[in-house]
Write a structure and sequence with these properties.
- The strands form 2 sheets. The chain has a 7-stranded mixed β-sheet, with helices on both faces.
- The protein has 11 helices and 9 strands.
- The relative contact order is 0.14.
- With 324 residues, it is α/β, with parallel strands linked by helices.
- The radius of gyration is 20 Å and the shape is globular.
- The protein starts with a helix and ends in a 37-residue tail after the last helix.
- It has one domain.
Length: 324
């Protein structure tokens, strides 16, 4: 079938938008990275006051996570700090793609490199569990320069031009992207081949592909794939995250491999280990709470659907049927 006028128009619009995005990056490229950080921080504060993108969602999420620790003023202060950090990260992103390999490596320091190096020296590969925290894109591309390229599991963005730009930046230092949609067979092969795969596990999952375990004290539907693969292939799980340090650079932190729970009850072990992954992410988010992506509707599913009642964990009063 030939191309229709509608499909041609859509292709043209996507190509136009892609070129516009590249133009924005090209305009930002000559600016010093430190200047981008400074402007980004001011942009974030401006948006908090004037153009509050999803501010209501941010404040709801922060109240749910820290409402028992912070008063209303503290929650709003943390929200403002988050906007400033997000603005900084977005402007940093604009400058990341044109940095040389030495410049990228200079922007990060590494703590716990021995944990990842030991895992990679073994014969089981490595699974990195992380989240949308700090400058996660910079962490990924800089890690490829320090430890060699790996694979990154990611869902394509709905906005195709931005997805294309992002894919180019993510793969700029050799990382290979794995489409999260229908990725099970691909991931199985990578683990059989003892490869390194990074997974961001902090997004809301559909009830039919996730399990309900607590995150900041609230049931959150979380993808169960990481637990399933780790248990099946006995792959080391390395927590990985990055935190901005006072001089404006980032410290990438690799923690020791997690000790997986293995009782022989597959269903129970998937639930317990997924809960372990959530607690691990919660722990590093608490170290720098303004670094996490609070605009995401992490607790989007209110209440647990009846169809998923057998996919809940007995944890702090949540009831679950694990009899089958």
């Amino acid at each position: 079938m030939g191309l229709t006028r509608k499909s041609l128009s859509k292709s043209f619009i996507q190509w136009r938008d892609y070129l516009l995005l590249r133009l924005v990056l090209a305009v930002a490229a000559p600016l010093p990275f430190r200047a981008l950080q400074k402007v980004g921080r001011q942009l974030g504060v401006f948006c908090w006051h004037v153009a509050p993108f999803r501010r209501r969602v941010v404040l709801e999420n922060l109240r749910g996570a820290f409402g028992h620790e912070l008063d209303a003023a503290g929650i709003r202060r943390l929200g403002r700090q988050f906007y400033a950090e997000l603005g900084t990260t977005l402007l940093e992103f604009c400058g990341t793609w044109r940095l040389s390999a030495p410049e990228l490596q200079e922007l990060v320091t590494v703590e716990g490199r021995e944990h990842l190096a030991t895992a990679l020296a073994g014969d089981r590969g490595a699974l990195l569990v992380s989240g949308h925290f700090g400058n996660w894109e910079l962490m990924s591309i800089a890690s490829a320069l320090k430890f060699g390229p790996g694979y990154v599991l990611a869902r394509p963005l709905d906005f195709a031009p931005m997805d294309k730009v992002l894919a180019e930046i993510r793969s700029s230092t050799g990382n290979i992207l794995v489409d999260k949609q229908d990725s099970a067979n691909r991931v199985r092969q990578l683990l059989r081949d003892k490869q390194m795969l990074g997974i961001l596990l902090d997004q809301n999952a559909s009830w039919y592909e996730g399990v309900f375990v607590r995150f900041f004290g609230h049931p959150a539907c979380t993808n169960k794939g990481l637990a399933m693969f780790a248990l099946r292939y006995d792959t080391p799980i390395i927590p990985a995250y990055n935190i901005r340090i006072p001089d404006g650079r980032y410290e990438i932190i690799y923690e020791p491999p997690l000790t997986l729970i293995k009782t022989g009850n597959a269903r129970h072990d998937i639930l317990k280990n997924t809960a372990l992954f959530n607690r691990t992410m919660e722990n590093f988010i608490r170290k720098a709470p303004d670094h996490w992506f609070w605009v995401h509707r992490r607790w989007r599913i209110i209440g647990v659907p009846e169809q998923a009642r057998d996919k809940m964990l007995i944890d702090d009063g949540i009831e679950v049927d694990l009899s089958q």
